Amino acid sequence: MAWDKLPVEHSEKVTTTGPTSLIGKVKVVIFERGLFRILAVKVEEANFEWDQSEITVKGQLGEVVEGDRYEFEGRVVEDKRYGLQFASSGVHVVLPQNPPQLATFVKYHGVTLHAPKKSSQAVFKGLGEQAMKQVTDDPQILKTITGFGIGDQQRLIDFFTSHDFGNTTGKIIEQLKGYGLSERLVNVVFDRFGTQTLTQLTTDPYALLKLEDGELGFERVDELARRYYQVSATDSRRLQATLLTSARQLTNQSGDSWVDQERLLSAALRLVSRSGQVSRAQVSAAFASLLTEEKLVADGEHIYPAALDTAEWQIAACLHELIEKSTLKAPAPKRLQAKLAAVEADQPYEYDQIQKEAIELALTKPVMLLTGGPGTGKTTIVKGIVQTFLKLHPKAQPSDVLLVAPTGRAAKQISAVTGIE
Fold first, then answer.
1. CA-to-CA distance for 210 and 218, rounded, in angstroms?
2. Measured distance between the N- and C-terminal CA atoms of the chain, rounded to whole angstroms
3. CA–CA separation, 22 vs 276, rounded Å?
4. Which residue stretches of 211-256 are H helix?
5. Cβ neighbours of residue 369 closer than 8 Å, sequence gap 6 or more
6. Please, which residues bridge with residue 24 across strands?
7. Which residue ranges of the chain lie beneath pLDDT 50?
8. What are the beta bridge partners of residue 90?
9. For residue 142, which of 271, 290, 152 has the smallest C-alpha distance?
10. Fewer CB under 10 Å: which end of the chain, C or N?
11. Are strands 83-93 and 54-60 parallel, antiparallel or unpaired?
């Protein structure tokens, strides 16, 4: 039944239901946003009256794979526009029950086995009818059996480890909501970690601090980690998370890409000691581990978060390339100074020496970086650069000058000052 068609006419026995379930194969994902999905499902088994080969399933379903078989829990509801649909409150993948199903299952998930038939048979021959339950509980159990095609044993171990089929979407959602997370945050967390969410949090609950834009602050994540995962005050994961959080906060505050080592250690010690006794030596040990793991980078007493260190080097490499490939022909110094003086004469103000040097540098070098806080004259300098350039090149038009800005507000400001859109 296509999503854009009129409701199907059903027999009188087919109607809305209370809690029930169905098993079916996902034909197509019609719509998705966050965890919410609308699916066209081919019905294989239904614990309610149904007279069509397909049914529309909707709900907080998370990751689903077209072609996979799932068991959906929920109820049949009446949609005013689209008719009877299945509103799902829980879902889990129906695991293969025999070798042919296993071969098809991994193929749908993009896993290419060297010998699909042989390797699938080896799994069920070695582990019996409950093979899939044992494999999803512990994929490493596949190492105890033989008879696989070349490399297939490890391919299957990697596949079942990465997908974590034991943690259903419904289970993940329920547990995250149990932590007090809003529906929006549940979606954010699931979008970040997918079906590996619970495994990731068990391994390191402070992984929640990796969410974009700091969706969850350290204090809240720390409370969750200590309450639900029994993380101690001196746990290395907690101490490292404190240091990384402090490094991010301090660099954001200063606008620099680094923070002084002593300042970082002191800030981290204050933050981590708010709930539990922690020594300076323990924080220092965690700091040393982060340096070894290259999550923090040291340049003397300057400590860089790894992402900012990488970004700085990449920016430097791009600037170097721009300089190396430049074909700029700098104007003669006296001519440049004369044109700059003519621009200055047209202004109701005079440039100070630093502003003059900045304008001259911009017009004689392929790249110039200008920094300064609000109100320090950066926009005035940009205007001087544009006007001096146009005087140096009489045939050039203002439209030949390209100005870009990171925000709409900045773009309007620079356009107002220079007169260039």
1. 11
2. 52
3. 49
4. 218-228, 236-254
5. 319
6. 43, 70
7. 1-2
8. 73
9. 152
10. C
11. parallel
Q: What is the DSSP letter of 334?
A: H
- Sequence-distant contacts of 8-14: CB under 8 A, at least 24 apart: 8/52, 8/83, 8/84, 10/51, 10/52, 10/83, 10/84, 11/49, 11/51, 13/49, 13/51, 14/49, 14/50, 14/51, 14/84
Maximum distance among all Cα pairs of the chain, rounded to whole angstroms: 94
Coil, strand or helix at 325: coil
At 168-203, the pLDDT tens digits run 667 788 888 889 988 888 888 887 887 778 888 999
- For tokens 């689209």, name the residue: 82
Q: How many residues does the chain have?
A: 421
Judge whether 208 and 178 are in contact, CB under 8 Å. Answer: no
Tokens 């990488």: give the residue: 310
The string of pLDDT tens digits covering residues 214-242 is 678 899 999 999 999 999 999 999 999 99
Question: What's the pLDDT at 360?
Answer: 94
Residue 44 — φ and ψ, nearest 5°?
A: -105, -45
| Tokens 């149990």 found at | 178
Q: Is 284 helix (H, G, I), strand (E, B) or coil?
A: helix
Give buried/exposed letters for 265-303 (b at 16+ CB in 10 A, else e): bebbbebbeeeeebeeebbbebbeebeeeeebbeeeeeb
